[in-house]
Amino acid sequence: MNEVYHFLIALVVILAAAKIFGEIAVRFGQSGIVGELLAGVIIGPGVLGLVSETPILTNISELGAIILLFEVGLSTDIKEFARAGGWATAVAFVGVMLPYFFGYFTFMYFGLSSTQSIFAGAVLTATSVGITARVFRDLKKLESEEAKIVLGAAVIDDVIGLAILAVVLKLVSGGTVTAGSIAQIAGTAVLFLALAIGAGLLIAPSIFKLVSKMKQENIVFVAGFAFCLLIAALSSKFGLAPIVGAFAAGLVLSSTKQGEEVKNGIKPLSAFFVPIFFVLMGTNVELGTFNPFVAGNGTILILTAVLFAVAFIGKTAAGFVVFKKGINKLLVGVSMVPRGEVGLIFAGIGLRNNVFGSNEYSALVAVIMLTTFVTPFILKYLMTKESQKKEIK
Question: What is the pLDDT of residue 314?
């Protein structure tokens, strides 16, 4: 009974802190994710000590990550994804490769292990399509050529990143790092995604057409969410992260007539579970790590600064592979910078698999928060400047 009490109070504190700090972040023009992370830092063991991670909270948090990637998949038009275009593909590829190797070599330079370096590179590959899309929408630029390239690239970026995550997750669970093992794991990841999406596209429309004729309330949403959990479980069985399966499930259902109904149904669940994930990610950050007056913190502060620099440069450089006339290359590149939710999921998986200690994890979360925080300001400046130029012409 006492355990139930503490569990319920922890949920109340997490949700209240998530919404309060999320609201503050939104009012300052930031993503609610930044506020939820800060909420976790403040209520976590490093500051107020109101909440600490427990096995049941961890499971709820992981369900939040699954729901989040399911939503991302549901919000992706698979036809648009398939014809995202050569420029979007080029931006995505460069935007994954450069940050990956920059992150890897930065960690190696600072004397961290090859496993940690491989995983750090994977964390830096992510791009938050949600944050970038919001800025384009707010400034009424979603129909611009730059927006189409960026949004297509961000989706492709996530798919490549999930494949990389599958590889590094397998390696940290006891595999050996060889060209053969990497090819085998990558092949397994690609094969699973291809089979899950291919089989789903063939079977799902018929199943959900039948389900939609049933009379029970919310039956389509329940069936859709069960489908997500099934594919996530199969993904785990294949040795991949469950979020890979969740994304594939969302991608499949986005192409069905019932996809919009499932997407609307998942929103209340998302509003509950996803903030728990971000707050718990924040509770694992050691705020004392960044105290400049503690002599031993110098290295981790420098590591964080260097990681932020390479994270920013690596993504920004990807915009310059677009040689199409009239495209603002800098705007495209900077739009790819925010790491947001996917980067946090990657970092959290690294922490829970004992790849990162609290210092390395805290440095990566700080970088993710910084890229998420500064990018909207830079994007608004670049878009406003471009609009002014067009008005003068």
Answer: 92
